[in-house]
Amino acid sequence: MKTVEPNVRGGERFELTQERATHGLTSWRASFTGDFECRIPKGTLVEVLYDSVPHADGFTCKPVEYARFEADHVPESERTDSRYGGYYFVFKKSDIGTLLKQVYNKHLQSDAHART
User: Fold this and answer.
1) What percent of the chain has pLDDT above 70?
2) CB 24 within 8 A of CB 74
3) What are the Cα distances from residue 85, in Å, to 49, 74, 89?
4) From 58's CA, which of 22, 47, 71, 95 has a CA 20 to 30 Å away?
């Protein structure tokens, strides 16, 4: 039986509990999505962009320090292209509680109720 993972809401914030080697995804002002390899450092704060779809395994996030992360990790040739529209990451709901520690949920009364 598959474990039902929680829905994730736009605006929730998570802290990476360990470094993650991954691919960031780039969006473009064209019919194209690209990617780049990077390491997201332990302690990086990410914010959920949109409410997750109930039966989807993943959700999209961007670093809270978006511009700084972009300058340090997104290849210059991409971020300086006039068609470049930004970047984001996809995490799995199953990463919550292991790779991702919830640190803020604007949908709860206080941060004390965030997932651990």
Assistant:
1) 86
2) yes
3) 15, 12, 14
4) 71
Decide if 40 contacts 16 (C-beta within 8 A).
Answer: yes
CA neighbor of 100 nearest in space, from 87, 86, 89: 89
pTM score above 0.90: no
What is the Cα–Cα distance from 50 to 8, expressed in whole angstroms? 8
Concatenating the DSSP letter of every residue in 47-106 gives: EE-SPPPTT-SEEEEEETTHHHHHHHHS-HHHHTSTTEEEEEEEEEGGGBTTTEEEEE-T
* Closest alpha carbon to 87 in 18, 14, 28: 28
In 3D space, the residue among 97, 99, 98, 95 whose CA is nearest the CA of residue 116 turns out to be: 97
Question: Residue 3's pLDDT is what?
Answer: 54
Residue written as tokens 């009364």?
109
